[in-house]
Amino acid sequence: MFIACHLFAGLILGLALSIRLNDRRLIGFAALGALLPDLIDKPVGHILLADSLNYGRIFGHGLLFLALLFIAGIIFKRERGSPAVLAVAAGVLIHQILDTMWTDAITWYFPLLGPYQPYEFTDYFGNAILAEVSSLSEWIFLVASAGIALAACRNLRPDLSRIARMLVRASIPLLGVLTIASLYAWATGIAGSILMAGAGPGDYLLLAVVGAIGIAGVTGHQNFLGINPSGQFG
């Protein structure tokens, strides 16, 4: 999955955690966790190790990293009483699920199955940026993510409330269209489309799942986001 999809999934996870634990800050920590594997692995794998490995799914995409984060989160919760690190770990878990890391067993179970396997990419970052901007799903997730982030921060910047309301309200039908279109692409076996560059049937199914969960998350947490059912901020 691409960056905006990971970010959106992390924000939805953060909303759920914030409701349950009554801590709005967890939205940001979960979103950070949902981006963290790529923030670590892409620069390391495609820049620092470009000549030897050239792969952007390494340590941050493995179960070892996830386990260490959860252990650190448990310790931090006991010592400081804060679930912040656990929220980051939960975000990392969501990232690995969306990347279907079980299909890359060497990376996911590292170091149990041997060393990372090298790959060959030409202009990885240039092609990645092109894939991002040419995928309609990324723009929809970006709009929804911006709305959630601004709504969650409305107490700090009340002047952004109107923009947040507009983005959140617009994101719901957009996510609905994305979900339906992704299900259609998955059912018909379309390979690659404007929805997501280079996508296969499995990717479309994941897009549909994220879209559907996103709709449920946004509509189900309207009060927490400060948006009344009428669409007005409370």
- Termini separation comes to 34 Å
Structurally, how many domains make up the residues?
2
Instruction: Average the pLDDT over all residues and give the rounded result.
Output: 89
With helices defined by DSSP (H or I, 4 residues minimum), what is the helix count?
A: 10
Short structural description:
This protein has helices at residues 3-21, 26-48, 63-80, 84-98, 105-108, 124-133, 136-152, 161-188, 201-220, 222-225. It is mostly helical and 234 residues long.
Question: How is the secondary structure organized here?
Answer:
Elements: H1 3-21, H2 26-48, H3 63-80, H4 84-98, H5 105-108, H6 124-133, H7 136-152, H8 161-188, H9 201-220, H10 222-225
Describe the structure.
This protein is mainly alpha-helical. The protein is built from ten helices and no strands. The model is unreliable at 229-234 (pLDDT under 50). The chain folds into two domains: 1-125, no CATH class; 134-234.
Please name the defining characteristics of this protein.
mainly alpha; 10 helices; single chain; 2 domains; disordered C terminus; 234 residues
